[in-house]
Write a structure and sequence with these properties.
Blueprint: E1 5-7, E2 17-22, H1 27-44, H2 48-68, H3 78-81, E3 85-91, E4 94-104, H4 108-120, H5 123-136, H6 148-155, E5 161-166, E6 171-180
Helix pairs in contact: 1-2, 2-6, 5-6
Length: about 180
């Protein structure tokens, strides 16, 4: 399978991208991206414990794009101007993981409230929220239980950074980044 737009870059500096993908996310795309990263871990000198964190955030981010991208809405080729994106960048001794995708504006308030709540919790609070969410057993119509961002927040060295860029009257381009040390 060939990916729509795919570039895998290695660099000699600490501030370049390790992985950068732009295009439609499907399960097979996720598998290919995981294999690309896995093939470069030793070459890049990423410790196993850090690799596991990167991998978990990567999978959660890509699944979020796959499940929640508003790609079924094709107004004025907006989906082509604002395609799903994912990247991993090494900056100094940290790894920055970022993803972007279109979302419907009516979902912003709920998502922003959730992210703000997660950013206010400490590690103990995140663990408690995870436990209560997993025992609650409630799933969304898209198949998730809401654990993805909790997992990401538990792993992140910093708060989840995010933006909502207005695209048109019904859509925004959601971007979030996470830092892993």
């Amino acid at each position: 399978m060939s990916l729509d737009i795919f570039s895998f870059m290695q660099s000699e500096t600490d501030n370049d991208f390790i992985l950068h993908f732009t295009g439609k996310i499907r399960y097979d795309t996720i598998g290919i991206l995981i294999n690309e990263l896995k093939g470069k871990v030793q070459f890049l000198g990423i410790k196993t414990s850090v690799y596991k964190k990167i991998l978990l955030v990567m999978i959660e981010s890509l699944e979020n794009i796959m499940k929640h991208n508003a790609d079924d809405v094709k107004w004025d080729n907006v989906d082509q101007q604002f395609p799903p994106r994912f990247y991993i960048q090494k900056k100094d001794k940290k790894y920055i993981l970022g993803s972007s995708n279109l979302i419907e504006k009516n979902n912003i308030h709920r998502l922003e409230s959730r992210l703000e709540h997660l950013n206010q919790l400490d590690n103990h609070g995140l663990k408690e929220l995870y436990k209560s969410t997993i025992t609650d057993g409630q799933f969304t119509h898209k198949g998730g239980a809401g654990l993805g961002f909790i997992e990401i927040a538990k792993i992140s060295a910093d708060k989840i950074r995010y933006t909502f860029e207005p695209v048109n009257h019904g859509l925004s381009y959601f971007t979030f980044t996470v830092t892993i040390e």
